[in-house]
Automatic annotation (TrEMBL):
One of its GO terms (molecular function) is GTPase activity. The keyword Cytoplasm applies. Its main location: cytoplasm. This is Ribosome biogenesis GTPase A. GO terms for biological process: translation. One of its GO terms (cellular component) is cytoplasm. Gene3D superfamilies: 1.10.1580.10, P-loop containing nucleotide triphosphate hydrolases. Belongs to the TRAFAC class YlqF/YawG GTPase family. MTG1 subfamily. Residues 14-177 form the CP-type G domain. GTP binds at residues 58-61, 129-134, 173. Required for a late step of 50S ribosomal subunit assembly. Has GTPase activity. Pfam families: MMR_HSR1. PANTHER family: MITOCHONDRIAL RIBOSOME-ASSOCIATED GTPASE 1 (PTHR45782).
Length: 288
């Protein structure tokens, strides 16, 4: 499966970020705690190489707690400041500010010795629908950034000045031109960072059902009252789910599209349970 997704506004945003990099002190990248690798934009990492970085694992309330602890250890071992957050509810926001100051400790100390009190300029980055605008709104204390439950809500750059000597550069969520790794594309699609029209909904649901059945079978079966699912393929699982939910159409066939939408919606909302799609030991990853 070859997934390509690079609208014009994303290319424009990349150019604008490159133009403003010299003003930036630190990069705060909002990541999805369920997919820390797939939601890390390699283009942002490359563009901002050498800048101090803070990783905010958002939607931590939806991720597997045990796996999230592994990710926190992983980032710390790679000398990256990391915090957990639920930006929709405002949890973990203040901790990220403390992490920014730790990442800039040397610079802040040098400025203080010189009698300088300049604002900390932060680039807030993240892929679409990862919670970046919710993070900024919580941090600024008001609705300064557009918020939505779909990718592509924020469409223009804006500087936001906070009361505590911090200035944020908000940018639209951007993806990179092409997903070389199919798994990355699938993970972004599972969590809603790619518009649903890009990948066939039924195919996506089948892939997700297979993952859940292999890795979180107890939660998956409990949610949909399924039994004896070992070894079943994705199509069979979605069909079984639809039958259990009563999505039967004329001729006794199952409405697979309806069943697929239910599975994706309930996964994204955390109704199946706390699930992580990526673990540090599963992938050969590095923190840029």
């Amino acid at each position: 499966m070859n997934i390509q997704w690079f609208p014009g506004h994303m290319a424009k945003t990349r150019r604008q970020i490159e133009e403003k990099l010299k003003l930036i002190d630190v990069v705060v990248e909002i990541l999805d705690a369920r997919i820390p690798v797939s939601s890390q934009n390699p283009d942002i990492s490359e563009m901002t190489k050498g800048k101090p970085r803070v990783a905010v694992l958002n939607k931590a309330d939806l991720a597997d707690e045990t796996v999230t602890k592994q990710w926190v250890s992983f980032y710390k071992q790679n000398n990256v400041e990391v915090t957990l957050a639920d930006c929709a509810k405002g949890r973990g926001i203040n901790e990220s500010v403390a992490a920014v100051k730790r990442a800039l400790a040397e610079k802040l100390s040098n400025d203080s010795e010189k009698g300088m009190n300049r604002a900390i300029k932060i680039l807030v980055a993240g892929v679409p629908n990862v919670g970046k605008s919710s993070y900024i709104n919580r941090l600024s204390g008001n609705r300064r950034a557009a918020v939505g439950d779909r990718p592509g809500v924020t469409r223009g750059q804006q500087w936001i000045r906070l009361k505590n000597g911090i200035e944020l550069l908000d940018t639209p969520g951007i993806l990179w031109p092409k997903f070389e790794d199919e798994t990355v594309g699938l993970h972004l699609a599972f969590t809603g960072s790619i518009k649903d029209e890009i990948i066939d909904t039924e195919l996506l649901a089948c892939k997700l059902a297979e993952f859940l059945n292999q890795n979180y079978r107890e939660l998956f079966c409990a949610r949909y009252k399924l039994e004896n699912t070992e070894g079943l393929q994705g199509f069979e699982l979605v069909e079984l789910l639809g039958r259990k939910r009563g999505f039967v159409v004329s001729g006794g066939e199952i409405d697979l599209l309806r069943a697929s939408n239910i599975l994706l919606d309930e996964f994204r909302a955390g109704k199946i349970g706390r699930i992580s799609l990526e673990k540090p030991e599963d992938l050969e990853v590095s923190v840029q």
